[in-house]
Amino acid sequence: MRAMAGPETWAAVDAYVGGLLAPHDEALEAALAASGEAGLPAIQVSPPQGKLLYMLARLLGARTILEFGTLGGYSTIWLGRALPDGGRLITLESDPAHAEVARASLKRAGLADVVDLRVGPALETLPTLEAENAGPFDLVFIDADKASTPEYFSWSLDRTRPGGLIVADNVIRDGALVDPETKDPTIPAQRRLHEMLAAEPRVDATTIQTVSVKGYDGISLILVK
Ligand code: SAH
Ligand code: DHB
Ligand code: MG
Fold first, then answer.
1. Is the terminal CB of the chain with fewer CB neighbours within 10 Å at N or C?
2. Is the Cβ atom of 67 under 6 angstroms away from ligand 2?
3. Nearest ligand, CA of residue 45?
């Protein structure tokens, strides 16, 4: 083991693993380049995490996916590529500038007809999806404004098929999850999510700590029974 493995090592390991097992093709590379050029924050999932999302969707045989938080479409491309012919992915993004970048990158990736990108705060879009009878979903990826994760989870739980999966990103935040003095304003919502999961008989859930090029964080994996 390397002495004092820390953020630099996490990033180097991500580069190694990503290079071999989650290499970027032109469309993924172009999506990141377009995000960078447009000044979007580089907060997309890491390449190994993108590959994990793809693999989870494949394992589920997912045909319908819902994503909260599109950013530049990087995770959306990984998820969209896991879908079979006729599969559909709805992705929700509040920032029109982010959505514009994502739309171009999704088109470049050949996913324009697979991905339904809705612009607006997710909590305002959900009633529209309800009215359209969207879902049930096989997989939901919650990765938008972190304070709303519990609300997104509640909504999604009612619209995820039995055996489906809900994944929530950024639930640990450098361990702030268990720091009673944390100033991170998103942490109360992550603790509430965990309390909801503990009390919810309709799910089996766990949370996995992750280190990556993005630092120390974690994801909740929520299986709908
Ligand atoms: N899933 C992306 C990263 C998303 S970053 C990836 O891994 O590639 C979080 C995104 O959520 C940002 O683009 C932000 O604009 C968006 N967002 C913030 N608040 C939102 C809201 N209320 N509704 C929908 N999207 C929101
Ligand atoms: C950050 C990371 C994320 O994965 C995300 O979805 C939003 C923000 C961050 O590191 O700030
Ligand atoms: Mg995230």
1. N
2. no
3. 1
Distance 168 CA to ligand 3 centre (A): 8
Nearest ligand to the C-alpha atom of residue 49: 1
Omega before residue 136 within 30° of 0, cis: yes
Would the pTM of this model clear 0.70, i.e. be above it? yes
* 43 Cβ below 6 A of ligand 2: yes
**Residue whose C-alpha is closest to residue 67's, from 190, 169, 217, 219:** 169
For 129-159, the pLDDT digits (tens) are 999 999 999 999 999 999 999 999 999 999 9
The CA distances from residue 34 to 59, 130, 145, in Å, are 30, 32, 22
